[in-house]
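Q: what sequence does this backbone want?
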């Protein structure tokens, strides 16, 4: 509870912290609605560690042990961990510092990923294409769906999700097969598609606002967000594994578990009229904002991080391996002025 600002409460289910300890890593998640990047780890005594920084309209996040990429309102940011193994900063064992930014303009960047060469590729939703950052231009287009006739700042199909396979873009999700300005809004209930890259073939259709495709353990997983379903695609069909009481966005995997992001649907806007509302009513449940952990073997939701208050919508969630308690620097305080680092071989007199 913050006495001077908006309320934020994050509550973990009974065994969430012990499960996170067993995973050997930490989580981060983004909320564009509140403009925050959150890090979820464990303190030395095993209690939950929560750290947040402010970045305007932060959405897609991609993480490795030492590098984070994140798409924000008009920039694509690269964060690097400056701590060496065994070092800590104020008790934290990862300190992510914003080192590089590409100023893209407001492209409505959704999913962000790193390829096999650790270079970023992102979903350019405004222009309905996959893109790379550029030192000279707002972006360099890399691929677009075959039904998109031209690159235009019109968000024609609401391309949003990206799955990598063998270090290359392999699958994308979009809300509809439309080729006019914001045409996807007319097909939110059952116009969703999964397409393969680069051939553009339809892998699965009939979905409701799908998001967050991921290739994991030899299977293509996807969130059927408009119905609150997490599942996988096989032989052109979507197979639900679990239902969550919220609009699903954000997906990562840890061993035999999937980690999902849930949002409260916006009333009387993009989410209005989706099947999710009927399913919630039939279950006598209200939509929630949360991080949920699904057991892939049983399809059960076994752990949850409930988020209440000012944060109501999430976009992405990522796993940071080998990290117990992460933090990052931002720009709202002057701390970033005082945290300096040098390459290891320059720490000694020449």
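A:
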């Amino acid at each position: 509870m913050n006495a001077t600002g908006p309320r934020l409460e994050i509550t973990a289910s009974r065994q969430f912290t012990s499960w996170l300890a067993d995973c050997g890593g930490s989580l981060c998640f983004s909320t564009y609605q509140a403009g925050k990047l959150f890090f979820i780890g464990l303190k030395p005594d095993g209690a939950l560690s929560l750290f947040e920084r402010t970045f305007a309209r932060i959405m897609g996040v991609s993480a490795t042990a030492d590098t984070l990429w994140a798409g924000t309102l008009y920039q694509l940011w690269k964060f690097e961990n400056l701590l060496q193994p065994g070092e800590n900063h104020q008790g934290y064992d990862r300190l992510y510092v914003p080192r590089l930014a590409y100023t893209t303009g407001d492209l409505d960047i959704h999913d962000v990923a790193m390829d096999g060469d650790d270079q970023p590729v992102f979903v350019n939703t405004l222009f309905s294409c996959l893109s790379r950052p550029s030192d000279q231009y707002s972006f360099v287009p890399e691929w677009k769906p075959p039904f998109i006739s031209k690159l235009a700042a019109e968000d024609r199909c609401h391309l949003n999700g990206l799955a990598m396979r063998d270090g290359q873009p392999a699958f994308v999700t979009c809300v509809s097969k439309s080729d006019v300005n914001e045409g996807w809004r007319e097909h939110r209930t059952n116009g969703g598609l999964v397409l393969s890259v680069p051939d553009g073939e339809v892998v699965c259709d009939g979905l409701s606002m799908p998001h967050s495709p991921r290739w994991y353990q030899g299977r293509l997983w996807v969130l059927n967000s408009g119905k609150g379903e997490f599942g996988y695609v096989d032989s052109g069909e979507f197979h639900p594994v679990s239902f969550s009481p919220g609009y699903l966005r954000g997906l990562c995997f840890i061993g035999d578990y999937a980690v999902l992001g849930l949002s409260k649907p916006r009333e009387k806007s993009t989410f209005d009229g989706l099947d999710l509302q009927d399913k919630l009513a039939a279950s006598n449940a209200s939509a929630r904002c949360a991080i949920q952990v699904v057991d892939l073997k049983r399809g059960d939701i076994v752990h949850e991080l409930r988020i209440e208050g000012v944060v109501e919508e999430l976009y992405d969630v990522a796993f940071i391996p080998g990290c117990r308690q992460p933090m990052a620097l931002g720009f709202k305080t002057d701390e970033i002025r005082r945290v300096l680092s040098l390459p290891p071989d320059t720490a000694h007199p020449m």
